[in-house]
Amino acid sequence: MHRASGARELRSVLDGCAAMAHNAGMVVIGAQVCLIYATAGWYKIQGTRWQEGSALYYALHLDYFAPWPWLSAALAGNALLVLALTYLTVAVQVAFPFTLANRRLKNALLAVMIAEHAGIAVLLGIPFLSLVMIVCDLVFLPTSFLTRLGA
Question: What is the pLDDT of residue 122?
């Protein structure tokens, strides 16, 4: 009887340690994602192509990053859309770390960033970076949503 009680206590302690290690890992991933977005956004703000709103236009014209040239050309042909997407990219990246306290705004920005990375995967042909960033973004989704998704 005493041995079973000790095993339950040990199991309880190990479960608590596992939960603590998991939560610590999630915090580290979250901090890294915030650092990535904040630094990327702030560096973009300093670049003239990003300031004038033409960075996406030039990225769409790089032959190395054009798996579907006709699609890149179609998007690059719409100057207003290119300008809006360029500024939206910078705004979302700079703002994201500051929105973590507001659940609705954070979730809206997560949706925009996941769409942004999906667009990078398709338009620029960089699927692995995009997939990694999407998975890292999923850390910030509400737990209730993730449990419903898993069920």
Answer: 95
Q: 10 Å Cβ neighbour count for 37? A: 21
Contacts 24+ apart (CB under 8 A), 69-75: 71/122, 71/123, 72/123, 75/123
How many helices and strands (H and E) does the chain possess?
8, 0
What residues contact residue 100 under an 8 Å CB cut-off, 6+ apart?
34, 106, 140
Which residue type is seen at 55?
A
Closest CA to 76 of 91, 86, 90: 86
Closest CA to 38 of 114, 100, 81, 103: 100
pTM for the structure as a whole: 0.83
pLDDT in tens, 16-46: 999 999 999 999 999 999 999 999 999 999 9
- pLDDT at 1 > cutoff 90: no
Q: Residue count of the chain, please give it.
A: 151
Give CA–CA dist 128/35, Å, rounded. Answer: 20
